[in-house]
Structure formats: C-alpha cells, structure tokens
Amino acid sequence: MRRRISMLAGVAALGLTLAACGGGGETPAEDSNAQDASGNVGVFTWWADGSEKAGLDALVKVFGTDYPDVTFDNLAVAGGAGSQAKSVLAAQLKAGNPPDSFQAHAGAELQDYIDADQLEDLSSFYTDNDLTAQFPADLVDRLTVDGKIYSVPSNIHRANVVWANVEVLKKAGIDPEKPAEDLEGWFADMDKIKATGTIPLAVAGSWTQVQLFENILLASLGAEGYNGLWDGSTDWKGAEVTDAIKAYEKALSYTNTDRDSLSDWAPATQLVQDGAAAYNVMGDWAEAKFAQDGDKPGVDYVYFPTPGTEGVFDFLADSFTLPKGAPNPAGAKAWLTTIGSAEGQAAFNKVKGSIPANTTAKTDDFSEYQKSAIADFGQDTIVSSLAHGAAVPVAWLNDLSTAVSKFGGDKDIDTLQSSLGDIGEKFAK
Ligand code: GAL
Known about the structure:
Blueprint: H1 7-21, E1 39-44, H2 50-66, E2 70-74, H3 85-94, E3 101-105, H4 108-115, H5 123-128, H6 137-143, E4 144-145, E5 148-149, E6 151-153, E7 157-158, E8 161-165, H7 166-171, H8 183-195, E9 199-202, H9 206-231, H10 239-253, H11 265-273, E10 277-281, H12 285-292, E11 301-305, E12 312-316, E13 318-321, H13 329-340, H14 342-352, H15 368-379, E14 381-384, H16 394-410, H17 413-427
Parallel strand pairs: 1-2, 1-3, 9-10, 12-14
Antiparallel strand pairs: 3-13, 4-5, 6-13, 7-12, 8-10, 8-11
Bound molecules: beta-D-galactopyranose (GAL).
C-alpha cells in the first residue's frame, strides 16, 4: 500500500523541485548536514499564540544557541489542533511549495504524508544522532514505516485530562481531591454544579467537541473497545457505541450553550480559570496555560484523568519532518537536531505542558502535573488520540468531525451512529 520511488528517481525528482523553486539547497536532502546549515529555515506549526507560542519560542531560543548562523522563519498558522494549518499545509505541499519542516502528529496522520511520498526518510539522521535509543520504543514504532523513520518527535501530550476549578467544586460540595470514578459519578457531580448556577462543563467548537467525544468513547468502551474502533474489531453500529453516544449527549447537555462560537480550546479553558465553569476536558497543553497565567495546582485548579479512563494514557505526539523538496534541507536538519536533543526537549516541554519524548531530557524542574504525566506514561495503557492525528488518517477525522459537529445541533443518535459506522467501514483497515 505504501508508495515508494526508487532512490535514483527520488534524487532526480528532488533536483527538479529544487531547481524549480530556486531554493538555496544545491545539495540533496540525504547529503545535507546540520553543521553546514545557514540561511533561513521555515518551520510550519499551529503554535501561533498564547502558551503554545511560548513553547515554540523556548525551542527557538535553544535553536538560536545551537545554530547562530541559521535564521528561524516562523510559518505558524493559528488554530488549535491544526484546525486551519493542516489544510493550508496540504495546499502548499500539493503546489510543490513545502516549508523546510512541518509539524505532524505521530501515528496515522504522519502515515498520510508518508503514503503521499511527501517526506524524506530520516533513518540515517537517527543513526548519525544516535536517536533511536533516546525515544520510547512505542513512539519510535509509531514513527516507523517499513523500517524507515520519517520524523523527529518533540513531545508527548495526554488528551484525557479534566481540568477543574477548585472553588467551583467546593461551592457545590464536591471534594476537589476525590474525582468521580466513572461517567455516571461524574454526571452526578455535574448535577450538583448545575444546581449552583455554574456551567458544569466547558467546551469550545469543532475539534474540542471531537476530543470530548473521544474521551467519552474511551470511558464507555474501555481501552480495548476504543482501540477496536480503529481496526474494525469494535462495531461502530453496536449497542456499546449507542451507549457511548448517549453519554456524549448527556455530557453536551452540561456544556456552555455558546460552545460553537468559542473558536478554540483556550477560551473554554479560560471559563474554568475564571470560575465560570467547573470542568474542561483538554489535552495537557492546558497545563501550560494554567501555569503561564499564574494559577496554582491544588489551590486554583486540579486535574485528573477523565472519569472512567484512569490507568489509560490517551496519547499524541507532535513530530517534525523533512519534506521532500524542502528549500533548505541542511537548515531543516539543524532544526531537527535541536528538537531531538535533550536540551531542546527540556526547554520546550517545560513550557508546553507536555513531557519530553527524549527520555534523556532533564525534567527535575518540571511541574507537578508533568511529573505525574511522566509517571503515568510509564505505567498506563497507551491508546492513540482520535482528535490529534494519532488514531486515524486526516480524511477519516474530517468526516467524523463533520458528523460529531452536526450531532451537536440535532442530537440525532441514530444518524450519528450510522454515519460513524459508514465512515468506519470506509476507512478501517
Ligand atoms: C494538538 C497538538 C498540541 C497542541 C494542541 C492544541 O494537536 O499536538 O501540541 O498544539 O493541538 O493546539
């Protein structure tokens, strides 16, 4: 299924592309070296503002120290989870106008780019930098296809975390240190919060609703049942998924009515910070926002795995690529070298709320939350995030997002389930 072009054809094609776009790279990507890097390196991400940009800035600072002769060109396109960036990037790649490096999620999303023959093989880069042994084997597996490895991971995020406002919980008579164990118990807590006149659950539009749905699927079906949705072994049209959709409908009933008009995750998390809502289910990039806004864990906010998902780590990892036809492959390799390094990972992840993918990075000054995430990642069952490109290809996620978003309006359980089933049949391998 994976398209390959011969080495010779690949080099010839690359030469043509470079000539066509007049890029500074005379040297083919495989012969380019980070130590020869100069000029601009254009890096495409969706870390355009707020705490996410702060994370990127921390990484760029290390890059500037590592490679003072290379200028970082920030090509970020705003929109959490790449909601705008991915289509912009797709158009640029299609037009033969790739950046020097772009952000892609480890797992199915990366596979899309590999299948489309848009990425350089970084196996020799891994060997030269002795990287394989520095990343968790599970993660390296998700980055490897047919024995080749195509990107350098910058971090590991967790998508099944609830962030809660301590005062709001106390006011409703809920012990912030004792989260509910399952969805039923959690909904009972939400009833108590509703009775105080506060919004129980904050969510924003589009992808944040998909991430909430993903969490409810995981809590309802368990790790095995959830995993089975992606390989066809769990029946999308079965009774268990009906129950999960009913639970999702109930969860939505506790959310802010203006959810579709909140453009991104940060305004939803902000509702919890402001005490206007009790809970927000969000990836642990939210930890970065709490920390940067000066909120204190245990005092202002608490966090816990989404009830019903304790012991499961809903995983995603950002990684960076060297696209075929990149104008400055040596500059891209310099960028990838900083990203893979223990220093780059420590500086970036400390600010980003995630945990380093590089296990040799120093984390003693990381937050309490991040230390708990490191421990959990080491012992929990790992599953792949739906909303963040780990579980399914972009086309599957897009179709599913449309169906979930429609459900937010019509609450038609049968229609959602049959759409999800049809989408699953179309894409499951
Ligand atoms: C994820 C990404 C995270 C964070 C989040 C919110 O897809 O992996 O690093 O940026 O979106 O934008």
